[in-house]
Design brief:
single chain, globular, 587 residues, Purple Acid Phosphatase, chain A, domain 2, six-stranded mixed beta sheet, alpha+beta, Helicase, Ruva Protein, domain 3, 16 helices, 3 domains, OB fold (Dihydrolipoamide Acetyltransferase, E2P)
Amino acid sequence: MEEHLLNEFEEFGLTPNKKVLEKCIELLKKYEITPDTLVNHWIGYTATKLNDEAPSLENMNLFEKDLSKELSAKTKVKSELLSESPVIHNITTITQIAEDDELLVGYGTPIRKSSVGAKRTSGLEGTPQNKRLAGLGQTYSVHSPSAFSPSTPGTSSKFSTRNNAGEVVVKYPVDDAVINWTRSHETWEPDIQLHGTAETKLTTKYNYMFSRLRDKFDVLEEQINDLGDSVKMKLGIDDFEPNSVLKSETFHTIGRICCDATSGSRLNTSSLLLEGTRNTSSGLSIPLDVSQLREFSFFPGQVIAVEGSNPTGKKIVVTSITTPPINPVFKTDVSIEGTLNMMVVCGPFTLPDDLEFAPLVELIQQVNTLLPHLVIIMGPFVDMKNKKVECGDLDYTYQEQFDIVMKELQSKITNSVQVCIIPSWRDVHYRAVYPTPPFPQENKAPNFNFFSDPCVLNVNGVFIALTSTDILFHLSKEEIAVTPHGSDRLGRLVSHLFSQQSFYPLNPPSEEMSIDLEQAEDHCKLSFTPHLLFVPSDLRHFIKNVSGCLVVNMERAVKGFCGGTYSRLQITGEASSVLIKAEIVRL
């Protein structure tokens, strides 16, 4: 139990001491909860009440009171629901019923709590919220991030007084060699091209999330059929059999993993369903018995082939699972003069309770100091989870606030640095849909490039895939797995993207996501393994080689009320070979 508990803490970069672990084990036994439930509660508690402090005996005692109160409240609500007599709820109990005890709330940036109306008040009217600026034709000074400096004690001063800026937290490859980040070939500029489907459909006006149910089904059906063809080649079989066929001998069938809602709201071994295709299984879903498998990994929406028997016609007894093969790294001619220096960073770029953008100012200084050839900046830029945005406490409209940030970036970053801007569905001024169209490109600087989220870029023959959406965190909440001790969980989550050939294979998606399946069919495919994949996440930062691709999770520019991290890379290549050195550095 202690080892399991320690592994759960390590997933979030925490290493509690022996006494804290003993206290946690005591809480597990006292409240009869699992290690992952305890750690999830702790992450939410420390993010909202302790400013992401590390676990200690002192704050564990405070945490126990909060945990006891929350668990008892949920038990009370559940017992009321089961009562035969009518129950009148107040706003407190309604809120408790709606809570999900498995959800990790509010670390990294706080979750949205205020009403939609409060946010729309400052955004849809298109007028400045500052009454002094209400007059038509009136000129006013722009509040730029260069003036964003902490002037009063608080969270901003905590960022300005940090003492770990510039610390290298992860290095790849792991050696003692010092990387020279000085820019070589100062006049050389990288050639940046969008790979794959053109963004024309995304940039034109369309009614997103207006797909018919039948069209959505066709998209999901086509995904299974496309991946099923590669699985058939992998297995060396001609075709799959229906999943409901009454058969005592083993057979192969294909489908996608679904959750039986009657067995619980989350996926577990009792709620596993395999939804077959229309052509092979008439679209029927059938339960899976995975008790004979020594190891497995499932999540909703995953396309798999199942080998097993169906002696009753009502449940498949699974003997083996086959996932779609991972395509090899794309072979291409690489043409880089000397070395290609890169910086990659993901928002938000201001602390959770202000709009001073002090981390953004620091980022611009780092860019102008290192002068990399290419900088990739991913949103959110005006985060919908920021407390000031949630309560509508802004001097400008959402669009005006974003324009201020863009103006500062374009005016302050040196022209010799190529910059790629990637949006986020969390940008409050923009379309809250995935895939997210690129920002409008009016009045952009010549060295700035705007692309969609997600996208694959071809930079002089080096293929770089990236998304600002936290797919790893979403997958980690929904995946169920039985794996050997010491297996690489984060690497396994990444491999799902390659195997399912998708930037977002989870279906249904996280509750906070709005995915347009018809657009995702064209713009969310990951049909080959790139050289580089950037997946910024609230999970612990890492740099890993997964199936020949260097995968980087640099977390975010802001973490809690402190400075976050960014990544810098040095790429060399000739012919079809690519050599990458990378670091994750504290901002």
